[in-house]
Amino acid sequence: MYSLLKPLLFQFDPEKVHYFVTRNLRRFNKFPGGAAVSRATWDMKDQRLEKEVFGLKFINPIGLAAGFDKNGEVIAEMANLGFGFVEVGTVTPLPQPGNPKPRMFRLPPDEALINRMGFNNLGVDVVAARLAAYRKNRPKGQEGVIIGGNIGKNKVTPNEDAVSDYIKCFDRLFDVVDYFVVNVSSPNTPGLRALQEKEPLMQILNTLQQRNNKGGVSKPILLKIAPDLTDEQLDDIVEIVTETRIAGVIATNTTISREGLTGKHKAETGGLSGKPLTKRSTEVIAYLHKKSNGAFPIIGVGGIHSADDAIEKLNAGASLVQLYTGFIYEGPGLIKRINKKILSV
């Protein structure tokens, strides 16, 4: 089905297509029997796929990466396609429109995307309300779907005040997400990646850990890192995770590299995702896993376009994986293919 739709969808602006697809996916799931058809076609339930990671039980290890559902609008629909967990965001304290359009570009010859969205989202209050409503009216059969909250700072907030933005998002989303992701690795907010340096990063993570207790409940906090870090910087990440005692790492975000690209939009600024990232993201996972002696969980993301790509990341040391660009290029059938492959190896 998707193989027939994809050539048509790829004729139009990728951001407009994204909203067209998600809007109609919501409509389809509201039709009588629509959600059941979606589950029957794409979802796969098997107890052997269940996995406990950082204290949470995942119904399967395949998640939707942050950036696709920035405002928590299609969690139920993504669960019906077979995702075991959905990460919303990146969410900022205040609403912001993001960068000027066009800001997303396909590179079909490279099976890649370049985006410079710029944390466009409706703000943490809107997202928190939507997540609360989803939890209150969670569809039958989705009780086990895990929700992650990816948090960042507003563009207008100077780096020296960044910790306050992360605190606001953390406090507001605490009751409605199952885990948090601190995003300091997007290349599309000016100066944001400077927060990956050890001192500011330690301040943000330690501050959040100090607040990470509400009625005796704490939530796993993960750090999302860039694929462009050097080995020395990755060594620092291992030390930071150990010292702050956060739950784990997401490896990796998009890259600023343009090596080997052939698509006509290769010179566009922004973060590159998709197939060109497959090898590097797996290398980062393997390095962190080996350097830390497997001391903390890693969620692998970047260039997963096949079941074999996912297995490579799991074998490299990832506990879970996430999809975004591969999901766009390969369609929802990719989720089931990965889960079947996991059961067969």
From TrEMBL:
Assigned keywords, A-Z: Cell membrane, Flavoprotein, FMN, Membrane, Oxidoreductase, Pyrimidine biosynthesis
Positions with a binding annotation for substrate: 70, 115-119, 183, 188, 253-254
Record's catalysed reaction(s): (S)-dihydroorotate + a quinone = orotate + a quinol
Gene3D superfamilies given in the database record: Aldolase class I
Pfam families noted in UniProt: DHO_dh (PF01180)
Keyword Cell membrane recorded: yes
EC number: 1.3.5.2
SUPFAM superfamilies named in the record: FMN-linked oxidoreductases
Enzyme class at the top of the EC tree: oxidoreductase
Cofactor info, note text: Binds 1 FMN per subunit.
The keyword Signal is annotated on this UniProt entry: no
Mode of membrane association: Peripheral membrane protein
Pathway(s) the chain acts in: Pyrimidine metabolism; UMP biosynthesis via de novo pathway; orotate from (S)-dihydroorotate (quinone route): step 1/1
GO terms for MF: dihydroorotate dehydrogenase (quinone) activity
Cellular compartments annotated: Cell membrane; Membrane
Binding site for FMN: 66-70, 90, 150, 183, 224, 252, 274, 303, 324-325
Domain Dihydroorotate dehydrogenase catalytic intervals: 49-343
Function: Catalyzes the conversion of dihydroorotate to orotate with quinone as electron acceptor.
Assembly, per entry: Monomer.
Family of the protein in this entry: Belongs to the dihydroorotate dehydrogenase family. Type 2 subfamily.
Protein's name according to its UniProt entry: Dihydroorotate dehydrogenase (quinone)
Classification of source organism: Bacteria, Pseudomonadati, Bacteroidota, Sphingobacteriia, Sphingobacteriales
